[in-house]
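Intended use. Records like the one below are meant for learning the mapping from a protein sequence to its folded structure. Do not use them to infer anything beyond what is encoded.
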Amino acid sequence: MNKKQKKLSVSYGKTKMNEAKEKLYNWAGILWKINNVYNGNIDFEALCPVGGCRCKLREGDVSLNQLQHTYYCFKCGFKIILNSTIEEKASDLIDVLESEKNIDAEIINVDGELIKVQREEIKDSDYWVDVKISKNKKGEAQLMVLAGSKKEKDKTQLFIDPKKERLAFDQNNDHPAKVFSKVTAMFKNSKSVIKSHIK
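Structure written out for the chain above:
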């Protein structure tokens, strides 16, 4: 279903008094209010962005080539020229709002190797973990994992090189076995493991 086929209604004209404080979205130089979402129908109001006004915008002139669309506020005289219709701008806003729901979504790469990205954060009273993407001495991307105990001053530092399929650690810090019982790095063609021998 493309943008033109999306079920959408936009109102700019008749005023409705609000009993509760409304949530407005600033988009494309206009303030938008979502009135209702029901069975795929989304009812928007396009409002004047001038402070203290907030009247519904009215449609003005359309250029001969249909590339410029004018909307104005009859109360304060605000005027805006858009490169698409207000319905299309509202459709863009819907896409942006929908995309916000996907920010923390689990990512599964079906093009190649199956990868799951877990964003859940678990706090521990003793240990801490930090993961970053950094660069090695050659400027190549690598995954850096830092971890340690809140009771200890030192930490362990792991480096995962996906290009060379190598798992390494910083020997100037604690050995990973002091923090982890087992570390496994799964690569496309190989697997690297660091194990603790402490029982």
